[in-house]
Amino acid sequence: MTLRPALLALALVLPLGSASATSPPQKALTMQEVLDASTPDDWRALDPENTLYLELAGGRVVIELAPEFAPQHVANIRTLVRAGYFDGLTINRSQDNFVVQWGDAEGEDPAKARPMGEAKAKLPAEFTRTSEGLEFARLPDADGWAPEVGFVQGFPAARDPKAGIAWLAHCYATVGAGRATAADSSTGNQLYVVTGQSPRQLDRNITTVGRVVQGMELLSVLPRGTGPLGFYEKPEQRVPMLSIKLAADVPEAERTRLEVFRTDRPAFARLVESRRNRRDDWYVHPAGHIDLCNVPVPVRAAVTP
Amino acid sequence: MTLRPALLALALVLPLGSASATSPPQKALTMQEVLDASTPDDWRALDPENTLYLELAGGRVVIELAPEFAPQHVANIRTLVRAGYFDGLTINRSQDNFVVQWGDAEGEDPAKARPMGEAKAKLPAEFTRTSEGLEFARLPDADGWAPEVGFVQGFPAARDPKAGIAWLAHCYATVGAGRATAADSSTGNQLYVVTGQSPRQLDRNITTVGRVVQGMELLSVLPRGTGPLGFYEKPEQRVPMLSIKLAADVPEAERTRLEVFRTDRPAFARLVESRRNRRDDWYVHPAGHIDLCNVPVPVRAAVTP
């Protein structure tokens, strides 16, 4: 028997199926077909004022900030980044199937902690926000964690219509601000990214500030720390960060110009449906369902110019 | 402000809370309290006939097989393993937020493929089984992927009472048998493990054979392949497997003696509840819910003897 290396052929980029000009117009599409049929309006460029570049020896991680969900934390992170606060600090934690976290490893010790400069040392918790004024592309499927789930400007999110609140959901690549036990103990100077099974129990318990849109594979493969909670036990195990910069502060030629698939247009609803029921030949049992954190939000190199 | 390194203190091992002998008997427990109160009967030893050791340069990965769900695949894997089929073969694929896969990288080429010896070259698909005779510890919460979800002998599983079938669910650490497009094209000579967000769309579409109970961190950190579907593009990027052995064939002194928390006892129901509503001081908003793939099944070194 021949088993192709492409066994379990379930990539994001699926081969085109049997669709053709003669297909009935209501034919269900694969994700690749949805993307192939997308127009420039279905994509949006990242805003350099809301984009961070985390530079590692192995490459660049691109983070999109979500000021609509955590305006004060995002403003503080911008202040810290612009002052070079993170440059030369380290990734201190990698807990398998959970999170990777970075910041000042000496932050606990007032004598050694790096000064936060003009940034605020105290912020209110920004766990949720009002759902008013928020364009929310709701998913068709039920979710046990929240009354409603969907996407807001490319971010996986949840909403409680009765309480009139919304929040970002903890999916793979979601970035949040670490905190101690006090709800208002985060400032954005310690950040984490989800690298494991969506820890949705964190939703509404911590301030989320954005998501990684490119370079997750640089963070997700970091050796797991062997200390409690996946912290590295020895200082030399920590992973140096060359810098974190705001894209707006980087010369245009050095920017990573990306476009994110818009989640507020009909093409995205088609994409979701293409993932709720996989149409390529490999699948024998389309699920008829998708969880929030299983929905990909495609990112591509910007179409020049 | 002081930010402890143990920010975001959400490990599996939580500190004991304020429980004491004077606590009311109905007090909700943390997971650590549930484990501390467990008795030897709440744990079961791994069966050496159902346990694989995948040996890598970095250490041992322990896999528990699930013969009740895929009897023919498991039998075939035992045959392959006992003949040394996997020894010296490689891990060929690491796709970010999805799977790691191993087997014969030359399996596609009949001239180069390693012979499968006494193992069967063709097996029926074992995507589901009858739910009859299966002790199913059902979770209290709804799941969009299946009518019922829960655990069978430590394995995350799902059940359709109307259809009278059950199957293993694709959670982090679930192991399955790679296949090509034909449903019956898997033999167990290509295996994958889930390393990303639970790809439940695979449920009922592929034969699952077990789960990794120890050593996931050796697989989850493997560099992501840059070829299509996360396959390594160059042979030298593949990760050698020293061997895969059945624990029963390894001298007792060299076995990794593990015990798995039993999922068919009241203590497990208490554990699930401790995770549905986190009780430590860090949480301000207990979720009141848990998804199947967020429920940990604790594993510990066997208590001697």
Automatic annotation (TrEMBL), chains A, B:
* Keyword list, A-Z: Isomerase, Rotamase, Signal
Q: Which InterPro entries match?
A: Cyclophilin-like_dom_sf (IPR029000), Cyclophilin-type_PPIase_dom (IPR002130), E_coli_cyclophilin_A-like (IPR044665)
Name of this protein: peptidylprolyl isomerase
Q: Which residues form the signal peptide?
A: 1-21
In the UniProt record, does the keyword Cytoplasm occur? no
| One Pfam family hit | Pro_isomerase
Q: What is its EC number?
A: 5.2.1.8
Q: In this entry, which stretches build a coiled coil? A: none
Question: Start and end of every PPIase cyclophilin-type domain?
Answer: 59-246
Q: Which GO terms describe its molecular function?
A: peptidyl-prolyl cis-trans isomerase activity
Q: Which top-level group of life is the source organism from? A: Bacteria
Keyword RNA-binding on entry: no
The organism encoding this protein is Arenimonas metalli CF5-1
